[in-house]
Amino acid sequence: MFKRQVFLLKCIAISVVTFWGSISSAQQVLPLNDLSAFTTKSNNWRIVGDAMVDISKVNALTTTPGNGVLACTHKQGAYGNEYELLSNFKHGDLDIEMDFMLAKGSNSGIYLQGNYEIQLFDSWGKKNAMYSDCGGIYERWDDSKPEGQKGYEGYGPRLNVAKAPGLWQHIKISYQAPRFDQAGKKVSNAVFLNVELNGMTIHENVEISGPTRGALSEDVAMGPLRIQGDHGSLAIKNMVINNFDKKPGTLTDLQYKTYYGSYSQDLDPSTLTVAETGTSEALTWDVLKESNNYVLVYNGTYDAPTAGEYTFKIQASGNSYLKIDGKEVLSNEWKTNNDFRADKATLTAGKHSVYIYLNKRDGWLKPVLGLWVAGPGFREVPYHSLGSTLGGSPADPILVNATTNTVLRSFMDVRKSPTAKRQRIVHSVSVGSPSNLHYTYDLDKGSVFQVWRGGFLDATPMWNDRGDGSSRPRGSLTLLDNAMFLGKASGQSTWAMDTTGSGYRPRGYELDANDVPTFKYEAFGSVVTDRTAVVADKYFSREVKLSKPIKGLMARLAEGNLIEKISDGLYAVDGKEYYIQLASGTSPMVRTVNGHQELLVSMDKGTLNYSIMF
């Protein structure tokens, strides 16, 4: 029998929150129809419909009437607490996420409990980020120390993934407040459990010994959310908060049954002969006598402290499913020992039956069993024994860095949205640079279909074991258009998504003296050269040339739900996700087809120059 000492993993004081999807129904979406959720002493904060930035001017942010966006327009150089925004609610443990937009050169910050600052700063293009850059945990301060030593304990983000000014950026913060005993003495420090910026984890489990510079007070159990407004202009939308002020649910009365044999994953366990039965303090696979060809069933009682939406996450090797009150929450699926899956269930306050089914018939898989639950007012809590999820470590990652300009061919899987069907691009070439700006090119369509900022590639899926030929970007990813780059458009005709009728033939690529590739192909009777290069460590410039200019031929630079003209030659795509900057003298056309917009440019002159800014 596999023996381990069994412990129930309690809700530990310091834990890394690894599943953002577990935000429960206790979350509150601030509608931003007015300023009623906040207090401010100045008129620099107001509710607007949208915001826009002039990227050629410092601190130039304009707004349009409406609601849904919180905007601060502030002249730099006027400092003071009266320009800040304070929430009318106070919090301890808190998750917050929001979109924000910074003017060029702007500076702001989010203070948890009014005391612990995550920096918001225009850090676009800066290679080595510090505590004072976007996403940094600001330093502490001690005026009694000598000059040059007053600031201490600041933490820069792992990577600088800040976007260009005027683009919407997304930040998620999971914060654990300091703890105090009954006498009011602090017994544990504040912790930033997780901070994500533009899809990248930039901090994990960072403990702070005390309030950062400019704090409202010393450590407190409860304090307001505070947003800095005296260092420049910015806008905020889609603000979601989740206060964690409730005790977690309990899982008790656990009873198990084991069965041995290679049984179909669809079998009814009640038709089998039970090998062992027993009770357990926590979920664990240690009750098994065999490590494979088994069925393990658990029944228990989950006591939900509050009515609302609960998220159940499971880790189990082989086939498994989960039922609450006889209703399937997680369906019968096969997974490896390192896979997780989760779904939500709406529960009433009180007791609910829990049924967990496991069936493993693959000897190369190690047994694992883990269950986590998050609910209204409490963070994700484990309900399994210590070590029950240690079924084997995933393969060591095979990472490709771009310390010099680097080119790598692989398959590339993309999804336009989290719910969209995966698309595999089989003839893709990824190009990395030491500027930490990278892109992938589709040799079948002549398109630059994704760009990212950060690390280059994770080649583990391609090179580990048998591999599947694919690699993955290791940075903050922006998906672009992946249609045929060149084509013909008239009226409401649909743009060609593939090369049919174009005479397209790829001709590979050539490297220059700095190993920057120029891609070549034939299309529409012309030889096309296509070169994309990094500019000033900030953005990409692209030059496309035709050997024989063709009348009526167009290039599709972008496609999305909305393409906005920001200024002459500058267009924002898909709700200010990224910019297309056209060369002087270029006259584009914005066309609407089937509810989507396209940014098109004539190729009559045979040469096109533009920039991709993100």
Mind explaining what this structure looks like?
The chain has about 625 residues and is mostly beta strands. It has 3 domains: about 25-245, Exo-inulinase, domain 1 (Jelly Rolls), CATH 2.60.120; about 250-380, Sandwich (Jelly Rolls), CATH 2.60.120; about 400-614, Beta-galactosidase, Chain A, domain 5, CATH 2.70.98. Helices cover about 0% and strands about 50% of the residues. It has 1 helix and 45 strands. The strands form 9 sheets. Strands 1, 3, 4, 6, 11, 14, 15 and 17 form an 8-stranded antiparallel β-sheet that branches. Strands 35-36-37-38-45-42-41-40 form an 8-stranded antiparallel β-sheet, with no helix packed on it. The chain has a 6-stranded antiparallel β-sheet with strand order 19-18-20-25-22-23, with no helix packed on it. The longest helix is centred in the C-terminal third of the chain and has 4 residues, at about 460-465. It is globular and about 80 Å long. The termini are far apart. Residues about 1-25 have low confidence and may be disordered.
Q: Helix and strand layout, with pairings?
A:
Layout: E1 28-29, E2 38-39, E3 45-53, E4 61-72, E5 85-91, E6 94-102, E7 107-112, E8 116-121, E9 140-141, E10 151-152, E11 169-176, E12 179-180, E13 186-188, E14 190-197, E15 200-208, E16 223-227, E17 234-243, E18 250-260, E19 276-280, E20 294-304, E21 308-316, E22 318-324, E23 327-335, E24 341-347, E25 350-360, E26 369-375, E27 378-382, E28 399-400, E29 406-414, E30 423-432, E31 437-442, E32 447-458, H1 460-463, E33 470-479, E34 486-487, E35 505-511, E36 517-523, E37 526-535, E38 539-546, E39 554-560, E40 563-567, E41 570-573, E42 578-582, E43 588-593, E44 596-602, E45 607-613
Parallel strand pairs: 29-33
Antiparallel strand pairs: 1-17, 2-5, 3-4, 4-17, 5-16, 6-11, 6-17, 7-8, 7-16, 9-10, 11-14, 12-13, 14-15, 18-19, 18-20, 20-25, 21-24, 21-26, 22-23, 22-25, 26-27, 28-32, 29-30, 30-31, 31-32, 32-33, 34-39, 35-36, 36-37, 37-38, 38-45, 39-44, 40-41, 41-42, 42-45, 43-44
